[in-house]
Amino acid sequence: MFKYVYRLMIELTNGKWTSVILRRFARSKVSKFVVPSFAKIYKLNQNEMEKALHEYPTLHDLFIRTLRREARSIDTGSNSVVSPVDAVIEDVGPISQTSEMVVKGKTYSILEMLGSQETVTKYLDGTYMILYLSPSHYHRIHSPIEGTIVKQWSLGSKSYPVNKLGLKYGVRTLSKNYRMITEVASKGGHLAIVKVGAMFVNSIEKTHTGTNLVKGQEMAYFSFGSTVVLLFEKDSFQVDSSIHTPKDIRIGEKIGLMVKDA
């Protein structure tokens, strides 16, 4: 019963105008007055911010804040894969031969997520990893590997919650939400980085230009908390032994190795 009530409430509130109102407020000068309380409620680490709290003119500017250069270190292993975001690793598991993955007891279609039969074929029998960003997290996305962007595209329109309730009671949130997908070719195989929009705010802004990626390099940012799904080719990725779920992770920390042809 709760599942249906939850879905109804989300559908009623996740409309065009509610999204517009939230977006306009977050970018308005008025929102500056809630910056201190937001930082307190979500326990933001102000010591790692590039600016002091009073220097953020809007709530949106705080959402997309940058960090001090020394705040994050990137694992330098030649074949290592690092976390692209500050997040909670919610799930890691196999992608089936029928392009499905099971997250929190729910089945998602990788074909629906990527929108391309040709693309999805590479990831059958591969590995997925789900990284959830709450409003408290740093919202910028960095490259998990060194490689070359071979394709980048967007799908979907509305966005539904991608937190634990959203994954449990929502309808195909990871494969239905607005999402921007970046496929990267590395010496260890292909990797799809699926950036999934959060409820109300669909904005995912690219900051990287060109096709070459350096591990740890900034790629884009979310305008609110959201989720990143990593998809690895079959036999290309080995999850690090330190990874369990749920697990807090920060940008640059090792999550595994690219082992295919390495």
Question: How would you describe this protein?
Answer:
The structure is a single chain. The protein is α+β, with helices and mostly antiparallel strands and 262 residues long. It has two domains: 2-63, no CATH class; 72-258, no CATH class. It has eight helices and 16 strands. A hairpin with a 2-residue loop joins strand 8 and strand 9 (189-196). The longest helix has 12 residues, at 2-13.
| Number of DSSP helical runs | 8
Percent of residues in beta strands: 25-35%
Mean pLDDT: 83
Helix proportion: 10-25%
Q: Enumerate the strands of the largest sheet in spatial order, edge to edge or round the barrel.
A: 11-7-8-9-13-5-2-15
The helix/strand series, from N terminus to C terminus, equals HHHHEEEEHHEEEHHEEEEEEEEE
Major sheet details: 8 strands, antiparallel
Structural class: alpha+beta
Radius of gyration: 18 Å
How many domains would you count in the coordinates?
A: 2
DSSP E strands, number: 16
Quaternary organization: single chain
Low-confidence stretches: 1-15, 165-171
Shape: globular
- End-to-end gap: 50 Å
Break the fold down into its secondary structure elements and pairings.
Blueprint: H1 2-13, H2 16-27, H3 35-41, H4 59-63, E1 80-82, E2 87-94, E3 100-103, E4 106-109, H5 110-114, H6 117-120, E5 127-132, E6 140-142, E7 147-155, H7 164-169, H8 173-176, E8 179-186, E9 189-196, E10 204-206, E11 212-213, E12 218-222, E13 227-232, E14 237-239, E15 247-249, E16 254-258
Antiparallel strand pairs: 1-16, 2-5, 2-15, 3-4, 5-13, 6-12, 7-8, 7-11, 8-9, 9-13, 10-12, 14-16
